[in-house]
Amino acid sequence: MSTWLIAGMGVVYFIVAIDQFFKGGTGTGIMFLGYALGNVGLVLVAK
Predict the structure, then answer these.
(1) For the packed helices 3-22 and 26-46, what is the interaxial angle rounded to 10 degrees?
(2) Mean pLDDT value across residues 37-47
(3) Element containing residue 47 per DSSP (H, E)
(4) What pTM was estimated for this model as a whole?
(5) What is the pLDDT confidence band of residue 47, given thresholds at 50, 70 and 90?
(6) CB 32 within 8 A of CB 16
(7) What is the pLDDT of residues 9-39, one digit of tens each?
(8) Domain boundaries along the sequence of the chain
(9) Cβ-Cβ contacts under 8 Å for 13 (sequence gap 6 or more)
(10) Is 14:38 a contact under the CB 8 Å cutoff?
């Protein structure tokens, strides 16, 4: 998987997390925030 694709998915996960926080879905927001943070680690490994 290319680095830019992993980073792009991390951005999408972050946007979904923010959307969930605004809609009141705190648990789901934390989950997607964790996915976004995990993708930061994947980007660092893929470089």
Answers:
(1) 170
(2) 92
(3) none
(4) 0.88
(5) confident
(6) yes
(7) 999 999 999 999 999 999 999 999 999 999 9
(8) 3-46
(9) 32, 33, 35, 36, 39
(10) no
Q: Residue written as tokens 């926080």? A: 21
Contact 16, 30 (CB under 8 A): no
Question: How many whole angstroms separate alpha carbon 15 and alpha carbon 9?
Answer: 10
Separation of alpha carbons 23 and 43, rounded Å = 29
User: Which one-letter amino acid corresponds to residue 11?
Assistant: V
Is the pLDDT reported for residue 1 higher than 80?
Answer: no
Q: CA–CA distance from 35 to each of 3, 12, 14, 39 (Å)?
A: 16, 10, 8, 6
